């Protein structure tokens, strides 16, 4: 299947680097918004494989961004054919 859109890295695109595309990765460090009571002794969320750990990471600058509906809407880019 051909993917018709991608998510652009706001930092790279600001500098005209249009190779900066975001992919979804699971983050260990990002605060996920879960209640602290479910964190383990290393202060990491126990829900390791849950949606709460997912962030967008840029393939170019490796900056990570929190996923929100607003963010996705803003960064969604259509792939032009040709
Ligand atoms: Zn969590
Ligand atoms: Zn970037």
Q: Can you describe this structure?
A:
The protein has 82 residues and is α+β, with helices and mostly antiparallel strands. The chain has one domain. It is built from two helices and five strands. It has helices at residues 10-14, 69-75; strands at residues 5-8, 21-26, 54-58, 64-66, 76-78. It has a five-stranded antiparallel beta sheet with strand order 4-3-2-1-5. It is elongated. The model has no long low-confidence stretch (mean pLDDT 86). One zinc ion (ZN) binds at residues 9, 11-12, 20, 58, 60-61, 63.
Distance between the termini: 17 Å
Question: What is the succession of H and E elements?
Answer: EHEEEHE
Low-confidence segments, given as residue ranges, are none
- Estimate the strand proportion: 25-35%
**Largest sheet: spatial strand order:** 4-3-2-1-5
How many strands, which pairing sense, and closed or not: the largest β-sheet? 5 strands, antiparallel
Number of helices: 2
> What would the principal axes of the Cα set say about the shape?
elongated
């Amino acid at each position: 299947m051909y993917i018709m859109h991608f998510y652009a890295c706001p930092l790279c695109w600001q500098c005209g680097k249009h190779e900066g595309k975001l992919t979804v990765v699971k983050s260990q460090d990002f605060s996920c918004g879960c209640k602290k009571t479910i964190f383990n002794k290393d202060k990491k969320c126990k829900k390791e494989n849950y949606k709460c750990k997912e962030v967008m990471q840029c393939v170019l600058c490796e900056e990570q961004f929190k996923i929100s509906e607003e963010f996705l809407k803003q960064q969604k880019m259509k792939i032009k054919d040709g």
